Amino acid sequence: MIWPPQVLIIAQESTDRDRLQKIFSECGVRSFCSSTLAEAHQLFFSGQALNAVFAENRLPDGDLSAVLADVGHFQKDVPVVALSRHADWDSYIAVMATGVFDCLVFPPGTLEAKRLLWSALQAFSTAQHHQSVAV
Q: What is the mean pLDDT of residues 42-62?
């Protein structure tokens, strides 16, 4: 696994990005931030390896399905955690149906954000291990 773990945060509001970046930094994780999918593409095209992506479910230039497609195209097995502004079951079920790893509701609580971070990093590490064993 890449060390320190590297995470991409795609969220429109700088306060949301900053809050997650601060939480992840406390965990020793390096975070890259973008406010649009187009900005995230620059990181994808650079070949920067990622361990997880936290992406808002609605962006000015795309949605979760576009994020999932891009992540799957550039780097396999990277968990995508949806960032949602809705804390109801219908919204959660709709977001989870897209194929994301999990969902975090804004504003993110520190403990829940850390739990999802470590869970996503563990899933990535497990997937990488299974790939190396299969080879």
A: 92
